[in-house]
Write a structure and sequence with these properties.
The chain is built from no helices and eight strands. It has 104 residues and is mainly beta.
Amino acid sequence: MALTISNEDRRISGDRVVIDAKVTFDTSYPTGGEALAASDFQGLIQIDGLIVHSANLALYRVIWDEANSKLKVYVEDGTSGKEAEEGNTDNIATLTCLVQVQGK
């Protein structure tokens, strides 16, 4: 499946475009993370940086894996507090996060 990008708000900062957007995951998370490309954002051809601002579910943490251009999701065990990557094919369609992307 794929990520859904919505609520894009863009502005220019020097020679870069800065986009704030909402990212929604889908019903089948792939081990290693969800691929995210510059072309997923309107008019962007390269991602220079991406910051994940927040996730809507408390036990989840979303990180940007720059080397592989993927968003990875980690979930904390509510009892032990240990964190592990979300399981392969898990349904996390209720998970959304806010991101800020800088690029050209």
